[in-house]
Each structure stands twice: as C-alpha cells, then as structure tokens.
Design goal:
The protein has 20 helices and 25 strands. By secondary structure, it is an alpha+beta fold. Among the domains are: about 60 residues, no CATH class; about 100 residues, no CATH class; about 80 residues, no CATH class; about 45 residues, no CATH class; about 70 residues, no CATH class; about 90 residues, Endonuclease I-creI, CATH 3.10.28.10.
C-alpha cells in the first residue's frame, strides 16, 4: 500500500476521468447512484452543505444511458405573449436556427437602409449638377436644396426607426441548448449555494494555523469591543515613526505607547475595568505552545511561561500556563453579561469611582483581618478615620455602590441575556433614542407622545422592570400649544444610571453621536423590541394620496448637527439592514438642511424612504412591531385597507376589460402574494403580537 502512495507532487496522483470515481467519503451514496443510473430511477439527495450532493448529481447524469439529445426552442406567440410556442429539434440545430433568424431580420432592415441612402445621395447631387450646367435657375436650385434637406432628415428618421423595429422584432430563443453535448446535461437546482451564503472555502484545512488570540479593549467612549490581537497591534508596527522603538536583541523589539493610546479590560481592585497598556512587545519564538480551552468560543494559545489568572482558594492567583491543572478555574469575561456593577460605576465621575475603589479596599482588608477596628484599617489604607468609621457602622456607602446594590436587589445586576425583564429593557432603550431620552442634568428619564395611553404604557414598563410602586418618582405633564402633548418623567437617579450604563443617550440627541448597542443583536426578540420602539417614534406612516393611485411618502428620518454626517448615515444603515432582514424594502439615504429654533448650528435631516408597494406594506405590518404609538398602528391599518380596496377595484376593472391576471398584476405593480391579500375580503388589522414577558 505504501508503494502506491509515493509521489513528489500532486501531479503524480492519477485521477479518474469518471466523476463517480472522484467522490470520496460517500461510498454508500456512490452505490445508490450507480444502481439508480442502471435502473433509471429518481434519487433524492438530502444533506448539509458541502457533503457532495451536487457532485453525486453530476455523476448520475454522466452514468445515465445515452439518449438522442434535442434542443428546445421558444417561439413568440402572437396570440398570447404569456404562452410562447415550444418546439424541439436535433441537438446543435437550435443555435444555428436562431442565428439564421437573427441574420434574416438584420438583412431585411439593412437593405432598406442602403436604398434610402442611395436615394438621398441622388436627391442631393442631381440638383447641383443641373444648376452647374445652367439647366435650372438659382431660385429653383435653392428650392431643390431645401427639399433635399427635408428628404435627408426623412431618411435619417427612417434609419433610426428601422433600428428600433429591429430591436422590437422577436426572434426565437434557445431554452435548452445541447450544442456539442454527447450526454444529458446536469442542472444544479439548489435554491442557494453554500458559497453564496457562507463564502467559498479557499484554503486547505490541513495547512491552517491556529486562530490568533482575541482581546477585549475599550474605545474613547469606554465601549467594550473585541478584536484580533494581531490586528489591534499591527498599527503600532506599521507606524513606528510615530512611536519610540526599542530593539534589545536581534529577535526582540518593543514599542512604547503614548498615554491613553490603548486600554484593555483587566482585573483591578476586584472588578473588571479598563487598564492602560504601556508597551507592545514581540519576538521570534521556537518551542512548545500551550492551548487553553475554556469553551467552544474561548480559546487561548500562550507560551509555557505566560501567567494566567486563575481562581484558587477563593483568591485570584497568576500561575504559569505550564503549571496549570485541569481543576483550575481560569478567569474570563462572561459573554452572557451585558453590564455589571463596574458599568454602573463608570457612569459616575472620577472622584466617585475612586471612592468605590477605596470602599472595596476597605472590605478586603476587613475580610482578611476581621478583628481590626476602623482606625487600624484607615491607617493601613492611608485614609482619615472619618471615612472608615462610617463604613464600619454600615453607613454612608459611596453613591455608586448604593445604586449597584439597589439594582442587585431587583435582579438587574449583573444584567444577562436570560434576564426575564431584558425584552422590556430593550423596548425602553429603543424609545430613548426616539421620542424619549434622559435629561442632560440627569434629573429624569422621559417619553413624549401625543397620546396619553403611550406614556402610561411607558410608565407600566418601568414599574415592571424596577418593581416601583404606582406613582413613585414620576409626573405626567400635559403640554403643547393645544394641550395635545403628554410627557412622562421619572426622577429616580438609580433608574437613570442604569439606562446610561446600557447606552441610552443623555441630553440633546441632535448634537451627539447615536449608536445601537451590540447586545441588542444577540437575540431576535431584543432586536425586534428595540427597533419597534425606534420605528414607533421616528417612522412616518403614509396615507392614500388624493389621486387614489399611490400612497404618500413612507419614511424614517432623524436630524443631526453639522459634523455628524457619517454617524447618522451609519445609524440609518443599521436600521435599513434590520428592515431588510424582515423583508421590508427601503431606498437610498438622502439629506437636506433644516432650521430649528433650538439649534444655533445648522442641522441636517437624514432620511430614507420605505417602499409603498402593497406587499411591502403587508411585510412591514406583519414583521415589524410599533411600540409606544397606537396612532401609527391605527393609521397603517386604515391605509392598508383603503389601498387594498382601491387596488381590488382597479384589478376587477382591468379583468373586465380583457386583461389577463398577469398583465393586470404588472399594471398594478402587484406580486402574486399581494394579489392574494387584495382578493381576500377580510378586514386587515395592524396589531402587535403579544410579547411573552416573564
């Protein structure tokens, strides 16, 4: 066996010309295909992408007994364009027949054009000859020239008209072309190729290297992001002229980073918080590497001497990778956690955060030395007695700690994806990016609406999340010039800090960047609730135009001051992507300058249109919720029902005039699915499906 496997290159490996013999790893399927080919049976191939279904189908087509192949030709039907005439002829003859038909059509108009050009030349040259020889007078010659020019324009018109007629002239089409084939063709009828969905595999898996380690870091706004370590540090090495480079050995080099250049997540004072990176180092290494597997998604490859944070005896210790055991619990970021108490602390100023660190330092010293009094602990910490005395008595904890404890009591810290209240939280978060928000002085979280029922719904949702008593820390204000605006406000600072931690915007939204938190996309129900509140605030619902032929504009719009163009475009693109994921078609993003009383700077309105095709309206109403806006639900219901009746009347009229169903659908821009909805006489009602909240 070994003798047969000796080869220098892959060119030496002999490959069978028969496709059936090229299939590897599907021996049972190959036997079935061979038998099916002999008995001329059908075969149903079911399996995961990449298992060789198409290859087996191609092999089956190759094994089938040879038959007399024919070409299938489609001829235009003068009586019904939707039912072309189908004819067959010997293999290879179809292409020749169609080519001849095209040539005959071209020659017919070509000959006509040549005759017209000759006549134009004669009409131009003859009058000139007669005038030159004195046979006609100057006046007659001038009149003849005018007539000749009119004739030339007529010739040009005929030539152009002939070209248009040439395009309109229908020639037969080859539906099945067996030109040059000796066996039956194989047609791959897969709905969507795996390569189109996931990308083609263009590497040899047996020559792949381990994936580079990933690291969590924070951007300028303390947003936590995950990135490949090599990609994160490549910028330092490609722009060495911007940094101080140090080379100690031939195979070692280091780059010292400026202050606040890069911050990664680390453990600091018993909490996960940003830690500044001072330098980036790299060197050549030859030797053993150790792979640490925490879960399917979490793997780390390090050198044996690399120290890893582990939990031993309820304490964090840093142990070399070569000395780790199976029982060691490696510390890692819990990806199921959206925010924890450190995220709450980060919403406060630096002084308050420093007090939190001192408080946890006090607790750690007290835990290690239970017999110590507050004075001794204060001395060990280098703080005044007054600070530790209050903490020793269980009073005057730092405000961020009090906020975190209040949220923990209500099961909201750490906030995880399986929290029973997470859907309502996503729902309110979406509203704060629309008609709601947080006051700049942090005095309240609010929602404004023209309907009181919407702000009452907002109130109930907050009460569900935080277990508030009815009417606690709130007020509802009636405003507007005619008393048609309602504003709910809740002044509980702990609630406000919670929503700031999950990235609710604070203050005037038109003058700041808007972002959609990444955790919203982790689960479909969160994505749906978030965008439902955003659409309820900012989507413009159409109504039937006075012409009763079309609808008014259906759009989504937000504003932003000068300098926020790219942010607003990115924000709208994410909304467009969500709508596309639920089969709702949208248009391009447009901009125009606007003037507002509240803004000193120039503002720009960013908007995209949503298609008003009837099927698109149905898709929007069925696949998209609308939160905190009953008025828009009712308006969309009325629009769809009125538009459906208009479409049905026009459809019935076209059918009565002799139009076919397909022609009528094309006239009214309807899909078969939309036509079904229109012909269904039941009243359409836009209503949201009941969300299951624990």
């Amino acid at each position: 066996m070994a003798k047969h496997l000796k080869f220098d290159t892959t060119k030496d490996i002999k490959i069978s010309k028969d496709i059936i013999n090229q299939v590897i790893g599907q021996d049972e399927a190959v036997d079935v295909i061979r038998k099916a080919a002999e008995q001329r049976r059908h075969v149903l191939l079911i399996g995961e992408p990449g298992t060789g279904k198409s290859m087996l189908g191609l092999a089956l087509a190759e094994l089938l007994p040879k038959e007399k192949l024919v070409d299938v030709i489609s001829f235009p039907n003068p009586n019904d364009e939707n039912q072309p005439l189908i004819r067959t002829m010997s293999a290879g003859k179809g292409r020749e027949f169609v080519t001849k038909a095209k040539m005959q059509t071209m020659s017919m108009f070509k000959n006509q054009n040549i005759i017209m050009i000759i006549l134009a030349l004669v009409a131009t040259i003859l009058p000139y000859y007669f005038w030159k020889t004195g046979q006609i007078s100057d006046i007659i010659y001038a009149a003849t020239m005018v007539t000749g020019m009119v004739f030339i324009f007529g010739v040009m018109f005929m030539i152009n008209f002939g070209k248009k007629m040439e395009k309109q002239t229908q020639v037969p089409k080859v539906i099945v072309d067996n030109y040059g084939r000796k066996q039956a063709p194989f047609f791959d009828a897969t709905g969507a190729h795996a390569g189109a969905l996931l990308g083609d595999v263009l590497h040899d898996p047996f020559q792949s290297h381990y994936p580079d380690n990933c690291i969590y870091y924070t951007d300028n706004k303390l947003n936590i992001k995950k990135r490949n370590l090599k990609m994160l540090t490549d910028n330092f090495w490609t722009n060495l002229h911007l940094y101080k480079e140090v080379k100690e050995n031939k195979n070692y080099e280091a780059v010292f980073l400026p202050k606040n250049e890069l911050q990664v997540l680390g453990k600091n004072n018993n909490s996960v918080s940003p830690v500044e990176v001072l330098s980036s180092n790299r060197y050549d290494y030859e030797g053993e590497m150790i792979k640490l597997t925490i879960s399917k998604q979490k793997k780390l490859i390090v050198t044996p001497e690399h120290k890893i944070a582990v939990q031993r005896n309820e304490k964090t210790q840093y142990i070399e990778a070569s000395k780790l055991t199976r029982n060691d619990e490696i510390l890692s970021l819990n990806e199921n956690v959206i925010i924890d108490e450190q995220d709450i602390f980060n919403t406060y100023n630096v002084k308050q955060q420093e007090q939190c660190k001192l408080y946890y330092q006090y607790l750690e010293i007290k835990k290690q030395n239970p017999t110590w009094g507050y004075k001794r602990i204060a001395k060990a910490m280098g703080q005044k007695y007054a600070k530790t005395r209050w903490w020793h008595a269980g009073k005057h904890k730092p405000v961020p700690v009090q906020t975190a404890e209040w949220l923990k009591q209500r099961g909201l810290l750490p906030l995880t994806y399986d929290n029973p209240k997470i859907q309502i939280i996503a729902k309110i978060l979406g509203a704060t990016l629309g008609d709601g928000g947080i006051f700049e002085n942090l005095n309240g979280i609010f929602l404004s609406s023209k309907e009181k029922s919407n702000v009452l719904e907002f109130q109930k949702d907050l009460e569900k999340i935080f277990g508030l008593d009815k009417g606690e820390n709130l007020r509802i204000i009636e405003g507007g010039e005619f008393g048609h605006s309602w504003c709910y406000q809740n002044t509980n600072r702990k609630i406000i800090r919670f929503f700031i931690a999950i990235k609710s915007p604070v203050g005037k939204k038109s003058s700041q960047e808007l972002t959609i938190p990444g955790w919203i996309y982790k689960k479909n129900n969160l994505t749906k609730e978030f965008f439902a509140s955003l659409l309820g605030s900012e989507a413009g619902i159409p109504k039937v135009h006075v012409s009763k032929i079309r609808l008014n504009t259906f759009d989504f719009a937000i504003s932003g001051e000068e300098g926020l163009k790219q942010n607003r475009i990115n924000f709208l693109e994410k909304i467009k992507n969500y709508l596309a994921s639920v089969d709702v078609k949208t248009g391009k993003i447009s901009t125009r300058k606007i003037r507002t009383k509240k803004s000193d700077k120039g503002s720009i309105l960013y908007r995209f249109m949503i298609s008003t095709e009837f099927q698109n309206l149905i898709n929007f109403s069925k696949n998209c919720k609308i939160n905190y806006c009953n008025y828009k639900k009712e308006k969309l219901t009325k629009t769809i029902n009125k538009f459906r009746k208009i479409k049905k009347q026009r459809y019935d009229k076209l059918i009565s005039e002799g139009y076919g169903a397909e022609s009528a659908m094309n006239q009214l821009n309807l899909s078969p699915r939309a036509l079904y909805e229109i012909l269904n006489d039941t009243e359409f009602i836009v209503k949201e499906r009941k969300s299951v909240y624990a």
